[in-house]
Design goal:
About 85% of the residues lie in helices and about 0% in strands. It is mainly alpha-helical. It has one domain. It starts with a helix and ends with a helix.
């Protein structure tokens, strides 16, 4: 992601920024799914 200074100096490419944000969002969702699986396994193990 560009810094505030870079955006102020060079502007912003909306399509490129949107793609980057979607990639980061997908990574976050995948991480959350993995964490939920780990929690479910730990809960099953403790019951």
């Amino acid at each position: 992601m560009p810094t505030t200074k870079q955006v102020n100096e060079n502007g912003i490419n909306l399509s490129e920024t949107t793609v980057r944000l979607l990639e980061k969002l997908e990574e976050a969702y995948l991480h959350i799914f993995d964490l939920n699986k780990r929690i479910e396994k730990l809960e099953a193990k403790n019951n």
